[in-house]
Amino acid sequence: xxxxxxxxxxxxxxxxxxxxxxxxxxxxxxxxxxxxxxxxxxxxxxxxxxxxxxxxxxxxxxxxxxxxxxxxxxxxxxxxxxxxxxxxxxxxxxxxxxxxxxxxxxxxxxxxxxxxxxxxxxxxxxxxxxxx
Length: 132
What we know:
Blueprint (H helix, E strand, L loop, with lengths): L6 E2 L2 H9 L8 H12 L3 E4 H8 L6 H8 L6 E2 L4 H16 L5 H9 L2 H11 L3 H4 L2
């Protein structure tokens, strides 16, 4: 039995690819592959990641690609009660955890990472839904 896997992407996937081996002029197939796998239901991200990506300069290749090439529905919303509730729990946990420094806690609270964890926590597929 094979499983259909889902991949929830962070901003760094896009940024590191653009800045290194998979830059648009060098390897356009990487971005095409992301779109292909999104269309097959395997790859997506969240609105908080979209905001981070669009915070770049408007003329940047990555900003243009996110605005013009990614299909509708690539970025899922995080405004639902289940996600915001999970996010609150995760933030409370991170703030109470003494092993993390105050700057690390602040960074975690202001970037998409906590939202990615909350989204994944509330939307993880059941074993029945990923079996083919």
